[in-house]
Specification:
The protein is an all-alpha fold. It has four helices and no strands. Helix 1 crosses helix 4 and helix 2 packs antiparallel against helix 3. The longest helix is centred in the middle third of the chain and has 31 residues. The chain starts with a helix and ends with a helix.
Length: 125
């Protein structure tokens, strides 16, 4: 994986952590969100994003260069199935507040937009 791509991924994760902590500090003591569900949602999507982004570089790219594209795609599908199963277990076993979990989950998408805007502005100057 290129150094620029690694930096971008790590910057997105940094924005994600900042947003998640900001939401936790501002809304954590209110009755609007459940702090545990907020953090679990953010950590869940953050780990998934890191595994997906670095997994492509560490697993899929070397397998593709050896001509084992189907094995790489199979591993990616297995990761998706495992995370969907874990997501189901989180909701059915622990009974988290879905809105709070989704709020934590969506901080990554906001972080991606912030990083894209930051990069677009820095390229113009």
């Amino acid at each position: 994986m290129e150094t620029a791509a690694k930096r971008t991924i790590l910057r997105i994760e940094l924005w994600h952590v900042i947003l998640l902590l900001s939401l936790l500090v501002t809304l954590g003591r209110t009755k609007f969100v459940e702090p545990t569900a907020l953090v679990v949602g953010g950590v869940f999507i953050g780990v998934n994003f890191l595994l997906l982004s670095f997994g492509v570089a560490w697993v899929l790219t070397p397998l593709a260069s050896k001509g084992w594209v189907k094995a790489g795609v199979g591993l990616l599908v297995l990761k998706i199935i495992l995370f969907l199963g874990l997501l189901s277990a989180v909701f059915f076993h622990f009974e988290f507040d879905a809105i709070s979990f989704t709020l934590g989950f969506s901080t990554l998408f906001i972080a991606i937009v912030i990083e894209a805007v930051r990069r677009a502005v820095s390229l113009r100057t």
